[in-house]
Amino acid sequence: MPQARVKLIITGDDFGYCPRRNQGITECFLAGAISNVSLLVNGNAAQDAAQLARRYNIPIGLHANLSEGSPVCEALKNNSSLLNEEGFFHGKMGIRTVLAEGLLKMSEVALARESYRNLRGHQPIWPRGNPLLIRHVFAQVLEEYGIKHTRVPIEPGLHSCDWIDPLLMDFYLGVEKDSFNTVDVFTKHGIKWPGVYIGLSTMGKNMSISNIQSAIDNAVAAFVAKDDSSAHSSVSPHHDQGSRTVTIELMVHPGYPSIPPVGGCGEGPDDFSQSWERLHELQTLTNTWLQSYYKARNMQLCAFKDL
User: Domain spanning 5-232+242-306: which superfamily?
Assistant: First the structure.
């Protein structure tokens, strides 16, 4: 195993989606299986999630959501370009269509920033990249509020993951393309992100202890190889290989399956949230073998606030 110091952020996404999701994520945190959560502000149980975070000192960031469910901001609930005819966000693909057609008002995107501040009571860390022109608005908001870190979901090795369903892979590749286009914008605004992102190839039924281990080991090996290459090409004789540190975010979705009609972001729980896959992630993440792996590799579990 190549030598490098690893700071590992394990983010439990969708905190606030439903009480059973909150329960599972909290159990994972208390078991040391996750180290950070992202709060879905318009989730059915967002208030409960915020209270749990305060009670157990769970490091919390914002799960930026402009595609699913209903808005929290009152100014966006009527006649907003962010909503369809039924009064809900356009969906993951629908929002891209509206953007491409030039029908989305960026001023309304900026209004969404207030919801998290009102619920949580301090500045958020936004762990998510955003497509097209939305990235510019988000970058400005992040800089304005002094938010230093976010997520940029570019996953190494994603293209070779032949176990991912083709339709889902098409969506993932779209996310990857958007993320590549976001890098320069975020850099310009002084926003940083972990050096490695993992989570698309290990989501739901595709999560296993071996998949997580392989993804992390391969990412660290690639980081060290790239670092060595940079050192060999450098004119500086003072490159300290012993100080190499790679930061990794592992995005996960643990929880207990949602039971309709409770859950969701205004439209009820979706199929994924009701499936066995959420519980599968919870059980995998809390497995002692995985915990032993982190310890054997001397990985430091941390949160975005620790970067």
Answer: Glycoside hydrolase/deacetylase (3.20.20.370)
